[in-house]
Amino acid sequence: MEPMGVGIPGAITPQNMATRASNKTLFAHHLKLYGHNKHASIRKVKPRIASLKWKTKNNFIDCGVFTMLHMDNYTGEAPGKWDCGLVAESKEQSDQLRVLRFKFATKILLHKVNVHAGRMYELALEFDKLPPGEKLTIILSAVRNRDARDPKF
Question: Which of 5, 24, 60, 105 is most buried by its number of CB atoms within 10 A?
Fold first, then answer.
């Protein structure tokens, strides 16, 4: 399968993607490129924002965690009936999201398609042998020094 738009006149390319269309339009265009019969319906549908009880107003960093949780738990039910186990925005929700971050990161790092999964597993076993105080020191140091490693945070 070729990347979207390769060799197709007027196609959306990485260079013009941001200026050409919304996500919905991009998705509809993608469906059309691959001959899906619902592309026109998708393009015309009016988006609705679901009112979910775990919606947040102050959390702007866990979008990926919410996305993965939603993909993991969505069963096709109407938004009002859907429950992925998160509570409303609170300290408890923050704790739940922290656990989910660890869960999803672990799944990604140890997945069979990750060519470094074996090494990640070995490092995790080594880390697990450390005393709790030393583990905490390593974690706090990593958080404090993350700007030096990756300035985009």
Answer: 5
Residue type, 73: N
What pTM, to 2 d.p., does this model score? 0.63
Identity of the amino acid at 87: V
Contact status, residue 33 vs residue 8, Cβ threshold 8 Å = yes
Cβ–Cβ under 8 Å, residues 4 and 15: no
All residues at 6 or more sequence positions from 134 whose CB lies less than 8 Å from its CB, including other chains: none
User: In a structure prediction context, what are the per-residue pLDDT tens digits for the chain, which is 153 residues long?
Assistant: 444 445 555 565 666 555 555 788 888 999 999 999 999 998 898 877 788 889 898 888 898 999 999 999 988 888 778 889 999 999 999 999 999 999 999 999 999 999 999 999 999 999 999 999 999 999 999 889 888 877 664
